[in-house]
């Protein structure tokens, strides 16, 4: 994939913008009491189906079929087994879609396959999260009702249009509470406007950075390091804008994330770009997905939970060569971070040494993050080999060697 292809605006954005009026209409009708509870669920579900058909065309069936299958499993399987069956259905269908679409000769200008795969990944998040809630007794499915009455809230949750094309992940309990609530959220329009302005500012930064990078494809030696960092920053800005628009759309529909539960706040943005710890960056990056992975894999894996979490993340993202390499490299770098920083910080006693330690490790963190982001976004094996054999691999290799050395010398500190 060419750099120019990677730097395009994320394809779901126009459809997300088109959904804003319908999100505001839904919130207004709920706050004014003009929609019954059943009508609210139907409104959200119908909006999701309409948005899926508009954004994905015939590919929407790849989303609707596993969603319907997950609902049938949740309603027919015992709570103790629901999560296992839903997980198996979602990950098998998602893997088949990834492999099937990647093996076809698709029009590079057609954004529908990419939107479809992204939406199926989000469906897997919601379905497995709901399955875990039922398995753990957090959510109790109501008995004594008809099949359609029981299925409607589940279908609406899996396909409700404000969160169809993006996150953050909203739990079923919070979704149900907001649908059943008739209270208007204070300051909603102001918060939506602030997030939209933030997205506009991020797009302005992307445009300015892209203009500055125009025609600077070539580099040699260590000069590739700042070039790689700048291109990775361009990609990160695209993700930041994506997350801000997602939260603005949820806000407009009345599904404001709880404090600290969204994917990106100004504090998060500041921490992502200023932290000198890769482990801190990893926890803050795409926070709702990080929490989902921690709950789904990390806390349930008896051995090597960190490696298992990143390996599953590579599977969930599609198992392209760049994703497998990038996420496994990320796991090794986080493991190294847990050992290197306590070792160095204990030896940074004076103020000048502390400043040198934090400044140097911030640069290292920025460059390693850039390396991982570019690796994950690399689709072809040949391009990945070029990245691996370039000077950009110096820092990841250095961290890897430091990890091997510290494994022999220092006991691993307890992870938070």
UniProtKB/TrEMBL annotation:
InterPro entries: LPLAT_7/PORCN-like (IPR049941), MBOAT_fam (IPR004299). GO terms for cellular component: endoplasmic reticulum membrane. The chain crosses the membrane at residues 42-75, 355-374, 386-410. The gene is Mboat4. This is MBOA4 acyltransferase. Keywords: Acyltransferase, Endoplasmic reticulum, Membrane, Transferase, Transmembrane, Transmembrane helix. One of its GO terms (molecular function) is serine O-acyltransferase activity. It is a multi-pass membrane protein. It comes from the Eukaryota. GO terms for biological process: lipid modification. It comes from Alca torda (Razorbill). It is found in: Endoplasmic reticulum membrane.
């Amino acid at each position: 994939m060419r750099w120019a292809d990677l730097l395009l605006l994320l394809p779901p954005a126009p459809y997300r913008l088109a959904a804003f009026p319908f999100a505001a209409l839904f919130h207004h009708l709920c706050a004014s009491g003009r929609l019954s509870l059943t009508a609210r669920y139907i409104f959200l579900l119908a909006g999701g189906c309409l948005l899926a058909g508009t954004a994905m065309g015939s590919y929407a069936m790849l989303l609707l079929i596993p969603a319907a299958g997950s609902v049938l499993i949740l309603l027919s399987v015992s709570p103790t087994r629901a999560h296992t069956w839903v997980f198996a259905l979602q990950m098998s269908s998602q893997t088949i879609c990834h492999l099937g679409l990647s093996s076809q000769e698709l029009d590079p200008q057609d954004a529908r396959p990419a939107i479809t795969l992204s939406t199926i990944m989000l469906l897997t998040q919601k379905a497995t999260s709901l399955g875990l809630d039922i398995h753990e007794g957090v959510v109790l499915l109501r008995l004594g009702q008809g099949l359609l009455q029981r299925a409607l809230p589940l279908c609406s949750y899996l396909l409700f249009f404000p969160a169809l094309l993006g996150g953050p992940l909203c739990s079923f309990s919070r979704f149900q509470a907001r649908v059943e609530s008739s209270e208007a959220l204070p300051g909603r329009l102001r918060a939506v406007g602030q997030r939209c302005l933030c997205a506009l500012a991020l797009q302005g930064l992307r445009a300015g950075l892209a203009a500055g990078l125009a025609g600077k494809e070539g580099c040699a030696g260590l000069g590739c390091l700042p070039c790689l960092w700048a291109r990775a920053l361009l990609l990160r800005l695209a993700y930041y804008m994506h997350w801000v628009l997602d939260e603005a759309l949820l806000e407009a529909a009345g599904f404001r994330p709880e404090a600290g539960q969204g994917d990106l706040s100004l504090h998060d943005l500041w921490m992502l770009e200023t932290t000198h710890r890769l482990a801190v960056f990893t926890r803050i990056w795409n926070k709702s997905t990080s929490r989902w992975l921690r709950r789904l894999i990390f806390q349930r894996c008896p051995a090597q939970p960190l490696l298992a979490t990143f390996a599953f993340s590579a599977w969930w993202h599609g198992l392209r060569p760049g994703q497998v390499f990038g996420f496994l490299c990320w796991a090794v770098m986080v493991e190294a971070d847990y050992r290197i920083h306590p070792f160095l910080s204990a030896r940074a006693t004076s103020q000048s040494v502390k400043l040198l330690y934090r400044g140097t490790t911030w640069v290292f963190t920025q460059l390693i993050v850039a390396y991982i982001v570019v690796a994950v976004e690399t689709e072809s094996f040949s391009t990945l080999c070029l990245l691996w054999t370039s000077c950009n691999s110096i820092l990841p290799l250095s961290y890897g060697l430091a990890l091997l050395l510290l494994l022999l010398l220092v006991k691993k500190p307890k992870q938070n």
